[in-house]
Amino acid sequence: MADSTPAGRFRLCPADEVPEGGGRGFVFGRMPEEVRVFVIRWQGRLLAYENACPHAGVSLDWTPDRFFDRTGELLICALHGARFRPDDGLCVAGPCRGLRLTALDIELDDEGVVHALDPGRPSP
C-alpha cells in the first residue's frame, strides 16, 4: 500500500523505477474507499490510470505490476481480456470497446518521484 499526500496527491514511485513498456500498481486506502492506480512508461512518457476496467471495475494487472499484453503494445484486463491503447486508455478490443480507462494527472517532484492527482478530487 502506498501513501497519499495531504494535498490529495498520491506518491507513486521514483520515475526511474518504471521501465519502458512496464508499469507499477498501487493501492491507497482500505475498502470500501480503496483507490487503485497504476503508472506506465510508454514511448518515453509516464502515464497513470485508475486501475479499474470500465467493463467490470476489476484491476487490470494479471500478476502484480503486469499491465501489458504479450505483444507489449496494449494494456490488457486480466478478467475478460479487454485491450487498451497505452497512450490514451481507449479500449480497442473486448467487452468495453470504445470506453476508456480513467486517466490521472501526474507530476514529478524535485526528487524525480511520480505523484498522481487523487481521482476522487476535481482537477485544480
Q: Could you walk me through the main structural features you see in this protein, from its secondary elements to its overall organization?
A:
The protein is globular, with a radius of gyration of 14 Å. The chain has a four-stranded antiparallel sheet with strand order 2-3-4-8, with no helix packed on it. A three-stranded antiparallel sheet has the order 1-10-9, with no helix packed on it. It has a three-stranded antiparallel sheet with strand order 5-6-7, with no helix packed on it. The protein is an all-beta fold and 124 residues long.
Give the key terms.
124 residues, mainly beta, 4-stranded antiparallel beta sheet, 3-stranded antiparallel beta sheet, 10 strands
Summarize the structure.
By secondary structure, this protein is mainly β. It is built from no helices and 10 strands.
